Amino acid sequence: MASITLNTATESDIHYATITMHSDGKFNPDTLAEFNAALDTVYSDASINALIITGEAKSFSQGLDIEYLISAGQEGAAKFIDECMVMVGRLLTLPIPSVAAANGHAFGLGAMILMASDYKVMREDRGYFCLPEVDLNMVLIPSMNALVREKLSGQFLRNLLLTGERIGAPTAVEYQVIDQCCDLNDLMTNAKALLQPMLGKSRDTLSGLKTGLHQDILRYID
């Protein structure tokens, strides 16, 4: 079974694409290739109006596949992490609105995929948002640092990055990490509702505005 699947559906004249991350959403080269292939379709198919990113079971995405990073060695791991952030850059400049529908844990790179989405909704009763690098004895590369500095601030940034604090959805709303939380049964409905204000905008204009908005992150990725 593929680690990443892409499905499309039309509702009320809106053509949604949904990327689902399977197997805990752990990223290795195969997972990343599949995610990028899904994004290729979203970028190239002008009929797609919006992107939803979600996971399955208890996880949205648990981030980098640590076993793969260890096997890749220091140089290989560093190259792969850079490639993952290129993918995050593609999300940041997506020419259509995107929403992360976090059905469960969003750790590390999974948390960054969530933060790179235009809108974020999270299941309220299960799952944590976490930047675990401090407990993994890892430091963030410059593009990752730029992303967390843009999306988080003050005490929230300190608590999440320097203590590895795990926060549930209600606290993530308080920290302004996500837009809202809801019951799992309402997750997709609420995700689609969040997207509405950005629907129908010019693809080129939206991508250009997002590029300007996130230029401090993108200059490290580029």
Question: Mind explaining what this structure looks like?
Answer:
With 222 residues, this protein is an alpha/beta fold. The protein has one domain (4-221): 2-enoyl-CoA Hydratase, Chain A, domain 1 (Alpha-Beta Complex). The chain is 47% helix and 21% strand. It has helices spanning 29-44, 66-92, 109-116, 142-151, 154-163, 169-174, 187-195, 203-213, 215-221; strands spanning 4-11, 14-21, 26-27, 50-54, 59-61, 63-64, 98-102, 105-107, 119-123, 129-130, 180-182. Strands 1-2-4-7-9-11 form a 6-stranded mixed beta sheet, with helices on both faces. Strands 5-8-10 form a 3-stranded parallel beta sheet. Strands 3-6 form a two-stranded parallel sheet. A hairpin with a 2-residue loop joins strand 1 and strand 2. Helix 1 (29-44) packs parallel to helix 2 and helix 2 runs parallel beside helix 3 (109-116). The longest helix has 27 residues, at 66-92.
Secondary structure: elements and pairs:
Layout: E1 4-11, E2 14-21, E3 26-27, H1 29-44, E4 50-54, E5 59-61, E6 63-64, H2 66-92, E7 98-102, E8 105-107, H3 109-116, E9 119-123, E10 129-130, H4 142-151, H5 154-163, H6 169-174, E11 180-182, H7 187-195, H8 203-213, H9 215-221
Parallel strand pairs: 2-4, 3-6, 4-7, 5-8, 7-9, 8-10, 9-11
Antiparallel strand pairs: 1-2
Helix pairs in contact: 1-2, 2-3, 4-9
Instruction: Give the structural class.
Output: alpha/beta
Rg from alpha-carbon coordinates: 16 Å
Query: What is the H/E string?
Result: EEEHEEEHEEHEEHHHEHHH
Count all strands and give the number. Answer: 11
Distance between the termini: 32 Å
CATH class: Alpha Beta
Q: Work out the strand percent.
A: 15-25%
CATH superfamily: 2-enoyl-CoA Hydratase, Chain A, domain 1
Unreliable runs: none
Q: How many helical stretches?
A: 9
The domain count comes to 1
| Annotated CATH architecture | Alpha-Beta Complex
Spatial order of strands in the largest sheet: 1-2-4-7-9-11
